[in-house]
Amino acid sequence: MLAQNVAFWVIAIVMGVAAIGVVRSRNIVHAALFLVAVLAGAAAQYILLAAEFVAWVQVLIYIGAVIVLFLFGIMLTRAPMGIETDLDNDQRWPALIVAAGLLALLVVLLLDAFGGRMIGLDDELLATGRTSNVGSSLFRQYAVPFEVVSMLILAALVGSVALARRD
Amino acid sequence: MQLNQFLILSAFLFCTGVYGVLARRNAVLVLMSVELMLNAVNINLVAFSAFSNTVSGQVFALFVITVAAAEVGVGLAIVLLIYRNLASPNLDTIDQLRG
């Protein structure tokens, strides 16, 4: 249990620093690379929670595809590649107050609601998180949502092509 | 491990994303902050899945990842269109509906 806790806190601190880097970095490409660190840390947390399939989907979809899309978006909008001062608007302090207030509210509520609840990392949890279980649940219990999501992806694909083409 | 450590990490990521959405001007950076918030939700789903020892949370996390990928695709197409029409990726240049 101790090893998992140490791993959790190391990854969590890296994720927190990188998340602040995403929202505070003055270089837009660096912000995208900080986002890679957050996404990889999330994949590591999924492994820690014995969710192997979600972890690898996270690596393939987010780090593989979404980040590349972001880098293409940065290039195509000819964003400044160097240090830039006008990436933020003038609502920085109100935004900080809102975010800090929301964080304080959430932490108080979570400590009140779930204080002391433990996640049992045992063989039973490892057996539940196996890819075969996720797959059979996805294709039996959640078959209809799965098909709906595939239609959504098709619509998004056609929609983004229709939006971005030049004619 | 405590359930709360995952939930508080996720709350921190979500609030960082909220700050980014509110404080950033560049549209691509706003989309990145939205991704931070979606990831926070995924960590919550997987943590509760492990807490209750069922697989449903992981399946929903997969759905959220899929929807997020679709959202980024359409969102970046819209950003590209805004850039093409207004020659700026900044969100505060889009004020045509201001009275």
Write the layout of secondary structure elements.
The complex is a heterodimer of chains A (167) and B (99).
Chain A: H1 2-24, H2 28-48, H3 52-76, H4 92-114, H5 123-128, H6 131-139, H7 143-164
Helix pairs in contact in A: 1-2, 2-3
Chain B: H1 3-23, H2 27-52, H3 56-86
Helix pairs in contact in B: 1-2, 2-3
Description:
The complex is a heterodimer of chains A (167) and B (99). The radius of gyration of chain A is 20 Å and the shape is globular. With 167 residues, chain A is an all-alpha fold. In chain A, helix 2 (28-48) packs antiparallel against helix 3. Chain A has two domains: 1-82, Four Helix Bundle (Hemerythrin (Met), subunit A) (Up-down Bundle), CATH 1.20.120.1200; 126-167, no CATH class. Chain A contains seven helices and no strands. The model of chain A has no long low-confidence stretch (mean pLDDT 90). Chain B has 99 residues and is mainly α. In chain B, 79% of the residues lie in helices and 0% in strands. Chain B has three helices and no strands. Chain B has helices spanning 3-23, 27-52, 56-86. At the A-B interface, helix 1, helix 2, helix 3, helix 4 and helix 5 of A face helix 1, helix 2 and helix 3 of B.
Task: Tell me the domain tally of chain A.
Answer: 2
Q: Report low-confidence residues of chain B grouped into runs of 5 or more.
A: none
Overall radius of gyration of chain A: 20 Å
Report the portion of residues of chain B in β strands.
Answer: under 5%
The number of helical segments of chain B is 3
- DSSP summary, beta strand count of chain A: 0
First CA to last CA of chain A: what distance?
59 Å
- Terminal CA distance of chain B: 54 Å
Largest sheet of chain B: none
Shape label of chain A = globular
Number of helices of chain A: 7
- Assigned CATH architecture of the largest domain in chain A: Up-down Bundle
Low-confidence stretches of chain A: none
CATH class of chain B: Mainly Alpha
